[in-house]
Amino acid sequence: MIKKIAVLKGDGIGPEVVEQAIKVLEAVSEISNIRFVYIDALIGASAIDKTGNPLPDETIDICNNSDAILLGAVGHPKYDNDPNAKIRPEQGLLKIRKTLGLFANIRPIITYDILNSISPLKEENIKNVDFVVYRELTGGIYFGDKGRKNENEAYDCANYSVEEITRISKLAFEAAQKRAKHLTLVDKANVLETSRLWRETVKKIAKKYPDVTLDFMFVDNAAMQIILNPSFFDVILTENMFGDIITDEASVITGSIGMLPSASVGNKISLFEPIHGSYPQASGKNIANPYGTILSAAYLLDSFDMFEEANKIRKAVEQALNEGYVTIDINKKKYYGTNEIGDYIAKSILSLQ
Ligand code: IPM
Ligand code: MN
To answer: Could you list the residue range(s) of the whole structural domain that residue 66 is in?
Structure first.
């Protein structure tokens, strides 16, 4: 069997972390009857540099003709502090999500015992933390009307339709059914009309999933509970911007944002990427943490129903962590390079046969 993977390395540390995930996929290929064909495509600042466009049409065509997309990271500091920049790398990311209809961004918060001591939270609070955030990805304030009314006033509108809320809610309820059967809708229904529509809609959908306990939490309180009592959560369902913010917050529980993978799914093709950014200061130094991307490759294999191989990657990562194979963000005294970790995981996949 042959699977085509669109590879969007992007900016900063994107190319080097993606390279490690590809090493791991190649190891998987060696132990299975699947072959991967990788097709590189441009996105982000590197696409702007080469074509003037953060998401060239060619990239969309390549993605549409692939079985899955593996993405590194997008962003470059030369655009961050220029409020007048009309073209920005992030537009590429937003456009690919919208164009390919990737409406659900799934971000699992996984803890590893071995990393608990570097978490900023107390160890006793991290025990049993295992939750997943279903972040809506193609609606809300990110995609509503926006603009300048005049020199002194700007606006960003948040819109949601019942249809947009329903399709991700179903996925979140289905996930909850396979997990601890507890779903928390995070919103700001005491203030926002869109949040009230989310509550109304999710309450109706919940009737079809009577085995799932549904509760509601305002986002400000959720931000607090993620720190105070993270093991309360099983599945969090939330809109686009709240999901962006609380997943960065939740990522630190695990010890390093560099560890966390994500999957963005829609009706057809899915995209897999680490949740961290392009971290340009680390680019080319062989210090970036590749685990988030390697674990994203495991989710990519799940999407091909290659569950056994995906779990091999997860197992190899866990073993490597236990043996101290970590990057400098995790252990400043004893650390390995990005490349060495990629090689190590690929090698252990082969020996785990
Ligand atoms: C993310 C990122 C993006 C987002 C940015 C780069 C546009 O922070 O994937 O979480 O806000 O969605
Ligand atoms: Mn983010």
So the answer is: 1-102+267-353
